[in-house]
Write a structure and sequence with these properties.
Elements: H1 2-50, H2 55-58, H3 65-76, H4 82-93, H5 98-110, E1 114-119, E2 122-127, H6 129-139
Antiparallel strand pairs: 1-2
Helix pairs in contact: 3-4, 4-5
């Protein structure tokens, strides 16, 4: 009789282990949904607190409005040349001098906020990997 009981306990332990394994598989997608929902709520909270996802949130060292606008432009469209950046800033601000945009780009490059790349014979600019990483961390996205 005790042998039968021991065998039943073994079988029950085996079934419990199988159920635990199935449960852990079922919980994984729910955890991802929870993580995603949490990230969306974080984005909404940041938008409400700061009036949108602005460069001020992760780059408080960028003080002047033209530099902030350059960062916004490169957030929207990576790998832009000076002329493209100038046009995009001009479309948002009404005015923008190519010379001033070039100076601000140079300052932002020295601060490692944006980086310069050569594409054929053209220099294009993008946000630096450090800035991309900060944005990703802020938004709860692991890259």
């Amino acid at each position: 009789m005790s042998e039968d009981l021991a065998e039943e306990v073994k079988e029950l332990n085996k079934r419990i282990a199988e159920l635990e394994k199935m449960l852990s598989i079922l919980v994984q997608p729910l955890q991802r949904v929870q993580d995603t929902t949490s990230n969306y709520l974080k984005i909404i909270q940041l938008s409400l607190e700061h009036g949108g996802l602005t460069p001020d949130i992760i780059l408080p060292e960028v003080k002047d409005s033209i530099s902030k606008e350059i960062v916004r432009v490169l957030l929207d469209r990576s790998e832009q040349n000076v002329s493209q950046i100038t046009e995009l800033v001009r479309s948002k601000r009404g005015t923008a001098s190519r010379r001033i945009i070039r100076e601000k780009i140079h300052e932002l490059t020295k601060k490692n906020i944006i980086e310069k790349k050569q594409k054929r014979s053209l220099s294009v600019y993008s946000l630096s990997p450090d800035v991309i990483k900060k944005w990703s961390q802020l938004l709860g996205i692991n890259i």
